[in-house]
Amino acid sequence: MATRSPRGFGQYGGVARAVERVGERWALLIVRDLLAGARRYSDLKAGLPRIPTNILSDRLKELQLAGVIRRVPTVRGGYELTALGRGLEPVVLALERWGWAAPGDAADGDVFTADALGITLRAAFRSDVAAAFPPTEYLLHAGEASVSAVVAGGALDVMDVGPDALPQPQGRLSVGSTEDVLEFQVAVADLDRLLGGDVSPLEVLAGRSELVERFGSTFRFDPLPGMGVDAERSAA
Amino acid sequence: MATRSPRGFGQYGGVARAVERVGERWALLIVRDLLAGARRYSDLKAGLPRIPTNILSDRLKELQLAGVIRRVPTVRGGYELTALGRGLEPVVLALERWGWAAPGDAADGDVFTADALGITLRAAFRSDVAAAFPPTEYLLHAGEASVSAVVAGGALDVMDVGPDALPQPQGRLSVGSTEDVLEFQVAVADLDRLLGGDVSPLEVLAGRSELVERFGSTFRFDPLPGMGVDAERSAA
DNA sequence: CGGGATCCCAAGCGATACTG
DNA sequence: CAGTATCGCTTGGGATCCCG
Fold first, then answer.
1. Are B86 and A5 a contacting pair at CB < 8 A?
2. Residue B203: φ, ψ to 5°
């Protein structure tokens, strides 16, 4: 029969439709990077070092066809999310949270980009906790990535401040008091401990050191229920 | 160098790690079905008609290795989620919501299973709205799927009541008043309209018909911001 | 008969080279 | 810089076959 479409799931339902559109390899990583703002072809390729260029090209075409991204007319090779694509933010944040809860270490050679760190912070951000604090800026260095996270009034704005950061077009939140600034550094391997609530691996570089506790309560992942010390695991 | 693992993303971060573990084709559909409860190999295959049996077998092994699922020792061919796997519920629900917001129609031959309908209802469920209503049971028929959704005190419990439904082991929420029961039917093609807030395609079969409004406010997807009539779309 | 394992072929993916 | 073209390898799809 010719009626059977190839590579469909033969399923009706939201998950099946979503996975058909953004479930291909690399697609959600591209969306993740674009959630931080418009990017050019070379930016995406630099942030995804192991993606073959033809695959990046294919994915960009597919995501355009699915209405998830569009080209930026004024920038050569520029891409940005559509409203539909921005609607994937809850999906990406949920994946980010689960990914930190899942066991696993970094393979050597893995890169840690500013866009990845930005999504991590947004996934760990607790708006309700942050709203009780005065405006604060955190300058965070982890691996190769350096970002500025400005927290004000329960809102969060993360910006790449690394050596080859793009100029940010949109206005940023402003820090009320310039004294509430904390600059620190953390090893990538310690990030999961830090986001689990343990601020000890954090090395303060500058700023008022009391703010480390504020950071720890503003950015934190909850452990998954039932994932205590009595680890459940079936033997292989 | 032999240190580079094949098929890794070369990325450190939550999204990359999550996609490495549950991003393979079919994996999240399997997780979706297991979110409704333990299933046997043949149940999964029946709910995923187009999955090749070797792929189902591969995915089950991979998901076991990733700590997402485990075998049920007492049931031949039985599988269930681990605590880590249950942690994927927010991911699956976010995908379900986005999938309904994304354009697309059912291909003919697509099946609509009770597990898919169950996730749809859980994704559309508004606990805060439901808490204000007295306990209610909705008997919903959509396509081949028939489920009973019991709503009580802001909690939701969905159960397959179709012809070949599995016996449910765990206790269910009980409906306070047996009068608050509504049985109805909806065409699969009308489901997106129904979950968008339009209860008109709903055909009441039995029960107090005032409850249709209650259903409509208890189960609803919000439209994506910026997805109004002025559709943004780039030409191909 | 349910629960898989084994084939073969097609499609997708990855690395490199090349072009506008 | 922003892709396209090509090639070999890996994975998925479909049918069949095996095992308890």
1. no
2. -105, 110
